[in-house]
Amino acid sequence: MTTSTNTSQTATHSLAHLNVLISGASVAGPALALWLARYGARVTVLEKAPALREGGFAVDFRGEVHRTVLRRMGIWDEVHRRQTHMGRQTIVEADDQERVDLPAFLMSGDVEIFRGELSKILYERTKDRVEYVFGDSVASLTEDSEGIDVTFDHGAPRRFDLVVGADGLHSHTRRLVFGDESQYLRFLGYYVAGFGVPNHLGLDRTARIYSEPGRSLMVSNYDGDPARAGVGLVFASERLDYDRHDLGQQKEILADRFAGLGWTHAATALEGLESAGDLYFDAIAQIHVDRLSQGRVVLLGDAGYGATMGGIGTGTALVCAYVLAGELAAARGDHRVGFAAYEAEIRAYAKGCQKTSGNAGPFLAPATEKKIRSRDRMYRMLSSRFLAGFFKKLTEKAASDLTLKDYARQPAADYASLNRQP
Fold this sequence. Notes:
GO molecular function: monooxygenase activity
Shape: globular
Number of strands: 18
InterPro entries: FAD-bd (IPR002938), FAD/NAD-bd_sf (IPR036188), FAD_aromatic-hydroxylase (IPR051704)
Strand order of the largest sheet: 5-4-13-14-15-12-16
Protein name: FAD-dependent monooxygenase
Organism: Streptomyces flavofungini
Structural class: alpha/beta
Domain FAD-binding: 19-351
Number of domains: 1
Helix content: 25-40%
C-alpha cells in the first residue's frame, strides 16, 4: 500500500488540555506516550512491575508502514543500532542433520530487536516529558461527564481525562471496563514457552529447530553473547487449567509434554528448565473485542487486538499508537470523535495482522510427520532465489495493508523538528 504524506488530510491541534493515564510500560504504552507528549498532552505511564521489563522475545518490523512509523517516531536508526543481527535458523533432523534453512526475512523481517531493548529506546525518548510510575496498578475506574477518577493499589487517587489500556494480552484495564478475559480470549490450540540456558551448542546468532508431531524445540543465540542461549518450546494441547503465576506448575507441564523428545540435543536444552528464573509460558491465543473504547477508556495493542505470537503484534502496536494519538489530536482531544476515528482506521488492519498468528503453532509444531515434511518442502522451495522476492512480499502484506495519514502539523520533510529531544 502507498503511504500518504499529504498534510492536508488531517489538521492537528495541541492536546495541552488533556491529562492521560496509560496503563502498561512495555511497548504500546510508551509509543503512545511519545506521540501524545509531542502533541502537548500531560501523560502518566503506569507499570505494575517495579522497573522497566528487560529481556523478552525478539520482535521484528517489516514493510513500508512499519518503516514509516519508526522513522516518524525518530527511532529507526536506534532500532537498527540495537538489532539482533540474527542469522540463519535451521530446521534439523533428530540426529541434528540440517533439513532446511529458514529465510532471515521470514523469521526476522526487515529489522529485529529484543522487546526489552525496544522498550528501553521508547523509555529513553519519553522519560523527560512523561511521568512514569512503577510498581503500581489501577484498582478502580469511575467515570463521569468531565473525567475519570482512578484509584491505585498503592498510590493516592488521581483524576484524568482519558485512560488507555496498553497492558497486554491479559489486560487488567480491559477486565475492569469491558469484563472478564474469558469473553475475549480465543485459544488457538497451542502453548509457547521460553527460558535462558547456557550456550551448549556454541551458536552465534543462529538457531536450531526440531519438530515432532505436535511439539517443537528451538535453541537460539540472538545477542551474540557466546555464553547464553534461549530455548523456545511450542506444543499442541487442549486448553490447560493452570495458575499463570505458579512457575513450578508450568515447569511440570513442560517437563511432562517434552519428555522423550527425539532430538539429540533435547535433553541438554531441557536441563535448564528446572532452575530457570525467567520462564515465559502462555497459550497461543488471540484477543477479539467488539469495540476498542468505552467512554473515556480505550484499548491499544495486545489489550485490544493481541496475539501471543506470529501476529506482527509489536509493529501493529506502534502503528496503532501513531494513529490513536493522531486522531485525538485531529479531534482537538474530543475522545468520542478521536476514539471512533482510531477504531475506524485500524480495525481492519489490526485484524489482518492478527490473522497471521493462526499459523504460528501449526508452522512450528505441525500435527503429523507428513505435515512436518510438507512444511519443510515448502520453505525449501520458497527460500530459493527465484521465489524469495515473491515470498518476502507475501510476508509483508498484512503489515503494509494500511494507508497512513500524515498527522503532523508540518510537512513530512520537517519531522526532524518533532523528533528533537526537549
